[in-house]
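Hello,

Following up on my earlier ticket. Below are the three sequence lines again, exactly as submitted.
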Amino acid sequence: MVFILLTMIFLVIRVLPGDPVMLHFEKQENPDLMDQMRRRLGLDKPLWIQYFDYMFGLFRGNLGESMEDYSSVGQQIFSAFPATLELAIFSMVVAVSIGIFLGVEASKGYGKTRDNVIRVFGIVTYAIPVFFLGMVFQMVFGLGLHWLPVGLRLPPRLDPPSGLTIGSVHFSTGLYTVDSLFEGNIYKFVEAIRYLALPSLTLGLVLSGVFIRLTRSNMFETLRLDYVTAARARGLSESKVTYGYALRNAFLPVLTMMGLQFATLLGGAILTETTFSWPGLGRYIVDRINFRDYTAIQGAVVVFGIFVSFVSLVVDLLYAYLDPRIRL
Amino acid sequence: MVVSQPLLSVNGLKVEYWTRRGKVRAVEDVSFTIDKGETMGIVGESGCGKSTLGLSLMRLVPFPGRIVKGKIWLKGRDVLRFSANEMRNLRGKDISYVFQDPMTSLNPVKKVGAHFVELIRAHEPKVSEKDAVVRTRKLLKDVGIQSDRIGDYPHQLSGGMRQRVMIALAIALNPSLVIADEPTTALDVIVQAKILDLLNALRDAYGMALVLITHDLSIVLERSDKIIVMYAGHMVEYARSEDIYRNPQHPYTQGLLKAIPNVELDEQTLDAIAGFPPDLLDLPKGCRFWPRCYCAEKGCREEEPPLVNTEPGHYVRCGKYKEGE
Amino acid sequence: MDKPKFRKGMLSSIIPGLSLLSQRGLAGWLVVLGFIMVVSIVTMTAISPWVAPYDPSALIGKPLMSPNSQFLFGTNDLGQDVFSRVLSGGGIMLEVSILSVIICLLIGVPLGLFSSYAGGLVDRFFCLIMDSIYAFPGLVLAIAIAAMLGRGVTNMALSIAVVYVPSYFRVIRSQVLSIKEMPYVEAANAAGAKGRTILSRYIFPNVVPSIVVVATVNFADAILTAAGLTFIGLGVSPGIPDWGWDLTNGRRLLSSGTWWVIAYPGLMIILLALGFTLMGEGLSEMANPRLRE
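Thanks for your patience. The regenerated structure is below:
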């Protein structure tokens, strides 16, 4: 299926309206310049050959060259990727946490005000455009209350953490939170979190609706099971019963849903990164669009596609591992 | 045998389930007392409200059920007024419940021992884990389970053993009242008797009162001091078990007695009571039993008969009887 | 002889639905509420040329005035009246979403019907394509396509449509597959009815409710996606008043605290998307009520 995806992307970028190079240059500029670019990027060859070049190139990890300065798209993506990864992880954590917490709260009072309010909340958050919410947060928390920063990943004059150093071997993940912990630098860690706060909160909030609904319905089923009532009959506290007993059952569906929502998460990440000037893959794509760098766009979209497929695969494997062996 | 104050006193209890299709009147106008160390049997068909009654004593009636009216006095205090914290304290410690199906009532991913430790430490947080385990072993021994089973999961035990575990959990903190809801229905006949004997033995040893909820009148005739006969949410007869046996007054009770197969007689067709219990959403006018009653009269179809006291300690709800018989 | 009966049949399955609204309790109210929201906004946009106090594109006032009695919602950085822009700004989004839904219906529905009814290799082929598109992050794909196609209402609608066709496809397919096995379809087949006939008379009318639900939800998503595309710069050229454009433009003004430029357009987008979402929720609950006792 990944194969089909890649083919599709190729079709979209190359086959759709005409010549990427011409689009890049907009007006009919110097034809020599355009030919030069075509030759350099291999866009003058017949479509079949281009397709094979593209596919084989991908296998070798070559994502093409940027139309701007012929630099390696792969390199650029590689440096932008960790930022998006970090944002994605934290946003998902936020979404799931909010979702589970509110889902549990809602299930406790079926049909009552609390339940309905939470359900409405879940529906409304989905209807809010991510970037709008982001801007609202920026205004309120950043500019209004001055609690949290509104852009970038770290304060301007701070260098990114360097990660783990064992002897002369250098290892950094690109995730500022992780790297700063590796480095043992608490100050950088705190700063990284502060800068992550608003973007991940925004994205996580919009995504949480799904998890709220899922947890809620799951809890309904579980809370009615006999052993839950029996536990209550033994005088165990409500929180123990809810979290210890019933929540165990919600775990697996939530995991599956995380995998399913990942695609949506990445889409939202693009908008979020733009809003918060977060230097990740999303902002990279938007940049490249503005610059009409079609080869780079192609590379980035490919990476998105592969990333999503990879995550789905991981979730599937995780599920298969967890399900038949242990009935959680 | 005079006790100053009954252990449990229920007065005018009314429990309804408020569903989308209407109010299900599961328990209506039930009143009784249980003294310390007594065994009370609650008998009736499926759906007559006996389980709901049992659950309501601990305020565990599941949504959408609610206790609409009545008083439940435990050791002189109104349980219905308890705060959530007090209820939590009460459950498992003063009153405990043995559920019908031990397979679904035990946590499948928790080991047997863990259930006990969790229970003990929930009510007595100062107890160390080691001590809790020691107590667990003793409890298991009391119910006749080898203590090395402490590390097993529920699905590794037989049905009878699981039920014993549930009983052990119920008596672990020495409650004054144990409610056993159909403790033997899920078990085979031989094990049934053993479990019932166990319950009795424990009752004697620990001095606790026991409520036996069952559809089998023969069980409670032998083993309980008092019996409540429930039908369609109503308490139709309430008396000491000898009185029920000697002088069953309500037609339903009579029918139940007749239906008990007697091994000693040669041939016998089972005398079942014809008909089915009514839909609790849509009860007939008048006495709830009249469609199946062999002696129903015109008055029975019109008015719901009140509970009357026919002889000392004997109450019946039937149009045939007036106060003082 | 049969044709008129079935056309009536289809309509009557929707119209009694409307009258059942209040009967179905909460679900019905959701639909009504959502419907009212949507209709109000559409009406507002439609009558805006006559109702708006000022021409939304005219540079009528002093830039960046906060809401006051003359300009209800204040003015933006170009001096345009935000209130008038809010009244008329929904046009583009509505156009785009309606167009994309139409495209989806025209492509997705026949494809879904055909593919699932035909079965075999054909079905597997289409399924593979649809699943691949479905699995791909929607917004990314829409962005990619829109980037290639350029600006404009049609292009936006096309990119959104491509992303959502698989949803229609799937829903229809699952419906058809279950209906296909039903006895009355078998009977029709045995009586010698042609595939086409079966599809149009038996299967299609039963699929309609699901289509309505999907289309409603699609509307909501389309609006949000259209807003997103505009935000990135792939929307329409900035001449026509558009909420999405206001948000993009207003972003630069955040630091100066001029909240009204983005707050009101944003709010309108939320309300419109919410209206459709509520309708979708209510309709899907009516179509297959969740067992909740």
